[in-house]
Design brief:
226 residues; globular
Length: 226
């Protein structure tokens, strides 16, 4: 299955709510992510779901988690394309193998670790952050140019956040019992976001659904560069 076919397939599965197919397909992505903790447990849950009919009571949580991870990865791809950044290993984010990228980059950029981690912040789902920081570390530009590029990305994400917040507020299906996820609280505190109220995981139709503001503030952690 080509990357394009995989995107089309997952889009269709998400649209039609085919959780079994979502789980099976997602487990074929994120190379290198399934062995390190804490993804070992999540990997076991995914396999138990589609191979042994286990964890059926976790349908909503699995669907929400996969959709969040999938869409944040696609957002990383879009940002890289929109701002003309290098594509790490010429791979889309969800299929990016950070270990083969590290092996390749060590030969051309000896100080890649220092360069990458200037743009990196730890979160529970590090793939999009790692992908963007890898892209930025490969960008052949002055530090001033990189800073300007990051400012443009942040402005773009703020526009998405504001637009989505308006749509969410107009959505009658959004419950008033929104809650702030620990991961977003941590990120907001790191980047000094003035208003943390928008970093909300909304409870929609009884399911944990991550809205676009979550994507935005996940990526805002690169603001630690300033």
């Amino acid at each position: 299955m080509t990357p394009e076919e995989m995107v089309d397939a997952m889009t269709e599965h998400i649209y039609h709510g085919r959780i079994m197919e979502m789980v099976r397909l997602f487990h074929q992505t994120c190379p290198g992510d399934w062995e390190p903790a804490p993804n070992v447990s999540f990997s076991g849950t995914l396999r138990g779901y589609y191979d042994f009919d286990q964890f059926e009571d976790e349908d909503p949580e699995l669907a929400a988690t996969i959709r969040f991870r999938w869409e944040t990865a696609l957002l990383a791809d879009y940002i890289v394309s929109l701002f003309g950044l290098p594509v790490p290993n010429d791979e889309m984010c969800i299929l990016w193998n950070r270990y083969t990228w590290q092996q390749r980059i060590e030969a051309t950029i000896p100080d890649w670790r220092d360069r990458q981690y200037k743009y990196f912040s730890v979160s529970r789902f590090v793939r999009p952050i790692g992908y963007l920081s890898a892209s930025l570390s490969e960008l052949e530009a002055t530090e001033e140019t990189k800073m300007a590029k990051i400012s443009e990305i942040l402005a773009f994400l703020e526009q998405i956040e504001q637009s989505n917040a308006q749509k969410v507020c107009q959505n009658a299906g959004v419950s008033s019992c929104g809650r702030l996820a620990p991961i977003l609280r941590e990120i907001c505190s790191k980047v000094g976001v003035a208003s943390q109220g928008s970093c909300t995981v909304f409870m929609m139709s009884g399911e944990n659904t991550w809205g676009v503001p979550a994507f935005c503030y996940l990526f805002l952690c690169i603001n630690i560069l300033f």
